[in-house]
Each structure stands twice: as structure tokens, then as C-alpha cells.
Design a protein that fits this description.
This protein has 22 helices and 21 strands. It is α+β, with helices and mostly antiparallel strands and 635 residues long. The radius of gyration is 26 Å and the shape is globular. It starts with 11 loop residues before the first helix and ends in a 15-residue tail after the last helix.
Length: 635
């Protein structure tokens, strides 16, 4: 590791750039501050939220330093946004609707009904959700939870559900409402590529970074992710169409489905009795991601803009307040319309102008450098790229329409990073010469170039301490200048891991609840993506599962591919099985999820085996374990 592992001061160029931001924008505009603090009722007495073992999963006071003036190690615009997001407590939106803010990355909204309360989006962790509910009850009384509503399929909107209700509550009649397709997308996103997403989320949210003026100051959408217990209770009521109305405990709701916007399954809700509009995560106080840096499917800004237009038409004339599952409400009908219209124009402009430039032959990198927002949009604080950015959103649009290839055949078959790095360093005269010239570029303030070129030295020789130290210093300066919270976190996490080593994955979203929610199809698919293909080229193993409470399934490993079919499905497996098991679905799930070893499965009295039982262990032996600690800034 580099000898000097301490965070460094801002370089003069970064200090000057941050000062230019301060002069450019209206920092004396106090409207957001007024909106964010309006309705404050109080906060928790205990600042640290802990799990059952006493481990801290959230610290309400961790961002107290944001009340100071912005230092030169932070972009003033991001510092302003983080200060607003760090306000924590219970807030009244309107009479009967309350929000717990600052207890996690997201907000938890509570709507009072005739007997109890409807909880909307119960945060990431059971511990933070329970603390938020306790805060509400301390101010409004011990009302029972009579309904839960997930606005969409991301973990920060359902993961803490077991902090507010139990399985017994739901079995006893507590409604769990979600948009159509919620469960499929919630579990698939957190399982199929969940390990990679979670590892990259460690960079995106910076949960393991030291908090402070040279460290993590927020993520733009909220501060960071809590690190408690992630759970999931399946919905009992699906919203399947726009205009669908439901009443829970006297709370009347009209829904707008918005699939393919910020999430593949999402909805907005209008509360007519309160003249209040919940925009889920479709309109928040920042430019959102079209492709999140942790990784996901590319979102469609054209569809997103279209649903915002529809929301304006459906609800704006009857909404005195708009609130979301992040940030703070917008009040007054004219302001609500202006807010939604500007958010709509933001996504539409990026979509249309990116395609215009695509059709002029520009590449994703060229478009990202050229794209600017109209002055009227840029003046609105809520369009700033604190979470998404103009740069990476335009690249996402390019990817959505044209994919990874820019059309230049020189980029069609490039060497992988480590191989390219060795060649680059050799062509540039060796590591010492590259570092000598890179230090000159660092002194000139060209930190983007330093990060790009020294990255080759690190990948050519990851043990080169001088290269790691210079690369860390360059990434750190880029973080200090970033208006985007997730960019800052990525840069500073890269610097941190170069100096200190890997932090791994602080927040794991593939929890037992999420795994239990997998359909059998999804579970078999999840196993298939773990097959070590090259090691399995010559394997040919067929296992048949005769379910006592379901349809028989046959799985076959052949040519490095694990397939599964049912007797009534298309492409029925014709190969004779090497082994057959007759068992309940719960036993099948247990062995496939690794909770029960194959040898222990065959010993169970209610499991019948025919054939070579050892073939199951042989097949499972071809599966790889995902790596939650894979390298990012080194090869």
C-alpha cells in the first residue's frame, strides 16, 4: 500500500473551480431550505440506530459537519444538496401525511387512515424503518400499520418492511400494495447481477468512506445506504392499470402506473382527500439516473418524460403538494406544475438532443462533452446532476440505442485492460517516464488525464506504490470537484481502496427474504449463471425433480449450460435422468440455495431417490461462487 494514506487538501485548480460554481449559481435562494424544513415535528433522541447485535447501521448525526461553510474540498452545489438531504426527523407534509426523512437513503411516508396507518416505502433496513415508525408513533400515537405500499422495485423502497409489519400481520389482513411486476423485478435485480451491483454500490454510495469534508458527504439522492437487515414481504394487491382506485383503512388512492421510468415496475399515487401527489422516484430534486453507476438496465427517458406529461394531465390541477420517496415536498399548484414540467423537459431534452447528435455521427464520449442544458433548466436547482449526470445519462441513451460499440473498427477488438496497460506503458517509455510526465500533468491540474494514464501503470503493475499513490491523489481531486454525489463517492472510494485496500460490500441486498421470493424458474436461472462454463464443457448430468406439491422439473448440465424444463413446458428434456428425487418444493429450494447439502438431502426420510445420488453433488460442484470483493481500481 502507498505510505501516505491520508486524504490530501484540494489543489489550486479544484479550489478555483469550486469557487466558480459558488459565483455561478443562486446560493442565496432559500426556497429549498424552507421547503425541506417545513413541517418539522422532531427527531429521534438516540442518534445511532443499531441492529440486534449492537452494530451501528445508521448514524443520524454523521453529517453534522455539513452545517459548516463549504470547504474547498467539496463542490458547493453538492454541499448544499447534501445539507438539505441530511436534515432528519418527522415532517408533516399535509395534515394526515407525514414523512420520516434522513433515516436512510430514502424517505418513509406515513398516511393516516380511519384506524391505523399506511406505510409507503419502508426504507432499506428493518432497523431504520422501525426507528422511523417509533419516531412517528412518539408524536402521533401508537397507531397500527394497516397497509404497506411499495412504490417501486428498488431495495431502498421495500427492504425495511420487516421493521413495520410481520408475516402474521399480513396474514391477518394488512394489505401490501405494489405495481404490477414488482416482485419479479425486485428479486431478479438483486440476484442475477446482485453481487456485482452490490460491490459497485459500495463505490456509488460510499457507505464505507469516512464522512467529512474530505470524505463522503452524500449521494445526491440521499446521504448513503443503511447497513441493516434487508427483507421482503410479497405484495398481496397488485396495481395493474392507470386509474385503478383502492381504499385502505379509509385512505382513497388513485394510481398511475409508470413502468420503464426510474424502475421497471413503478407507480405514482394521488391522494384526492389531501390534494397530495406522491411521485415515487419519478420526480425528485435532482437529475436522476438513466443508467445508475452501480449498474442496471438502461432506462428510457422518452417514456419517463411521457409519464410525467401524463401525471401533469391527470393530477396537477388537483394537487396542492407533490412529494416523493426522496428529498422534500413542493407546495402550491403553480409550483407543482412548474416542477413536474421542468423535470419532464429535463429528460425529454437529454433524449432528443442525444439522438440528434447520434445522427450527426458523434460518439457517446463526444456527446457527453458537448451536451449542455438550456439555461432555464440549469437555473432550477432540482435539475442539477447530483445523482444522475448529463455526462453519464447521455452515454446511457447512446448505449440504449446503439450499444457499446461506437462504430470505429479500431475499437471493435481492443485488448482487455491489463493487456492494454502493459502495451501502453511500454510504448510510453516505461512506468517511470509515465509517472514523471503524469506528475507534471497533476501540477497543471489535468486530473482527468492523470487518472486515465496512470490507470495504465496501475493495471500493468498493481504493486507499483508510486503509481497507486498518484492515481489515488488524482481520483481524490476529481472527487473534490464533483457536483454529482455518486461521482464523488466513486472517485473517493477508488482513492480509498488504492490507499487502504478493498472495503468489500457493506450492504448486501440478496437477503434470505429476497432469495425466498424467487420463483423456481428464477432460482434455476440464478444457478445457471453460476456454472463455470469451461470447467463444465465435458459434463453431461441430468437430474429430475418430482415435486410432491408441484410440476416435475428436469435440469441438465451439458456443453457448459444448465437448462431446466417442466413436463408440460416447451422443449421437454428427452435424456434419461441420472438421478430422480421425489420431494417437496421446500426441500428442493433448500438444496439449490445451499441450505442443505446433497448428502443430507438424500438422508431425509420424506425424500425418495432413484439412480446415482452422487450426480447431484457432482452437478452442483460445477457452480462458481460469486466474488463480493472483486477488484475495481486494480486488475
Amino acid at each position: 500500500m502507498p505510505e501516505n494514506t491520508e486524504a490530501k487538501p484540494a489543489q489550486p485548480g479544484i479550489t478555483a473551480a469550486n469557487e466558480a460554481v459558488r459565483r455561478r449559481f443562486a446560493f442565496d435562494d432559500a426556497q429549498d431550505l424552507e421547503d425541506a424544513r417545513r413541517g418539522f415535528m422532531g427527531t429521534a433522541r438516540e442518534s445511532v440506530i443499531r441492529d440486534a447485535e449492537g452494530r451501528a447501521v445508521w448514524d443520524l448525526d454523521a453529517y453534522g459537519f455539513l452545517n459548516q461553510d463549504c470547504p474547498d474540498t467539496a463542490n458547493p452545489s453538492l454541499w448544499r444538496q447534501s445539507r438539505l438531504c441530511s436534515d432528519h426527523g418527522l415532517f408533516e407534509v399535509v395534515e394526515g401525511i407525514y414523512q420520516v426523512r434522513g433515516f436512510d437513503l430514502s424517505n418513509m411516508t406515513i398516511v393516516e387512515g380511519g384506524h391505523g396507518i399506511l406505510v409507503i416505502d419502508p426504507l432499506i433496513s428493518a432497523e431504520t424503518a422501525a426507528a422511523g415508525l417509533a419516531l412517528y408513533r412518539g408524536h402521533r400515537g401508537d397507531r397500527p400499520v394497516t397497509g404497506v405500499l411499495y412504490t417501486h422495485s428498488h431495495v431502498d423502497h421495500f427492504g425495511g418492511v420487516r421493521g413495520v409489519v410481520t408475516d402474521e400481520d399480513v396474514a391477518g389482513g394488512v394489505a401490501v400494495i405494489a405495481p404490477h411486476g414488482f416482485l419479479k423485478h425486485a428479486v431478479s435485480e438483486n440476484v442475477y447481477a446482485g453481487t456485482a451491483m452490490s460491490r459497485r454500490a459500495a463505490y456509488m454510495y460510499g457507505a464505507a468512506l469516512p464522512k467529512g469534508e474530505r470524505g463522503q458527504i452524500g449521494a445526491g439522492l440521499g446521504q448513503t445506504t443503511s447497513t441493516g437487515a434487508v427483507g421482503l414481504i410479497a405484495p398481496t394487491l397488485d396495481i395493474i392499470r392507470t386509474g385503478q382506485t383502492e381504499t385502505v383503512d379509509g385512505i382513497r388512492m388513485v394510481f398511475q402506473l409508470t413502468p420503464g421510468t426510474e424502475a421497471p415496475a413503478e407507480l405514482n399515487i394521488h391522494f384526492a382527500d389531501h390534494a397530495a401527489l406522491c411521485m415515487a422516484e419519478n420526480a425528485t430534486h435532482n437529475l436522476h439516473n438513466l443508467l445508475t453507476l452501480r449498474g442496471a438496465e438502461v432506462r428510457d427517458p422518452r417514456v419517463w418524460a411521457g409519464y410525467l406529461t401524463e401525471a401533469i394531465g391527470l393530477f396537477a390541477d388537483s394537487s396542492d403538494v407533490a412529494f416523493a420517496s426522496h428529498h422534500w415536498p413542493v407546495r402550491g399548484r403553480e409550483r407543482v406544475v412548474a416542477f413536474l414540467t421542468e423535470q419532464r423537459d429535463l429528460y425529454a431534452y437529454l433524449h432528443d438532443q442525444t439522438l440528434r447528435l447520434i445522427n450527426q455521427g458523434l460518439t457517446a464520449l463526444e456527446i457527453a462533452e458537448r451536451m449542455e442544458l438550456p439555461p432555464a433548466l440549469e437555473r432550477a436547482w432540482h435539475t442539477h446532476g447530483y445523482y444522475g449526470s448529463v455526462s453519464h445519462n447521455t452515454k446511457a441513451i447512446y448505449q440504449r440505442y446503439l450499444g457499446w460499440f461506437d462504430g470505429n473498427p479500431a475499437h471493435l477488438w481492443e485488448h482487455p485492460p491489463a493487456e492494454s496497460a502493459r502495451r501502453y506503458v511500454d510504448f510510453m517509455g516505461g512506468a517511470d517516464e509515465v509517472l514523471r510526465r503524469a506528475r507534471e500533468s497533476f501540477a497543471d491540474g489535468d486530473f482527468r488525464w492523470v487518472a486515465q494514464v496512470v490507470g495504465h501503470v496501475v493495471f500493468a503493475d498493481p504493486d507499483n506504490a508510486e503509481a497507486r499513490a498518484l492515481q489515488a491523489d488524482a481520483l481524490e481531486q476529481l472527487g473534490y470537484g464533483s457536483e454529482n454525489g455518486t461521482w464523488r463517492n466513486f472517485f473517493l472510494m477508488g482513492a480509498y481502496e488504492l490507499r487502504h485496500g478493498s472495503v468489500g460490500t457493506p450492504t448486501v441486498t440478496a437477503s434470505p427474504d429476497v432469495l425466498d421470493a424467487l420463483t423456481l424458474d428464477q432460482l434455476f436461472d440464478a444457478l445457471a449463471i453460476r456454472v463455470d462454463g469451461p470447467r463444465s464443457w465435458d459434463a453431461d448430468i441430468t437430474v429430475r425433480w418430482n415435486l410432491t406439491d408441484g410440476e416435475p422439473v428436469t435440469m441438465r448440465l451439458r456443453n457448459g449450460v444448465l437448462t431446466h424444463v417442466t413436463d408440460t413446458g416447451a422443449g421437454r428434456e428427452r435424456a434419461a435422468p441420472d438421478v430422480e428425487f421425489t420431494l417437496a418444493e421446500s426441500d428442493l429450494r433448500a438444496v439449490l440455495l445451499g441450505a442443505v447439502a446433497p448428502a443430507d438431502l438424500t438422508a431425509r426420510p420424506d425424500v425418495q431417490v432413484s439412480g446415482d445420488a452422487g450426480k447431484l453433488a457432482e452437478l452442483l460442484g460445477h457452480l462458481d461462487e460469486p466474488d463480493p470483493d472483486f477488484a475495481i481500481v486494480t486488475p
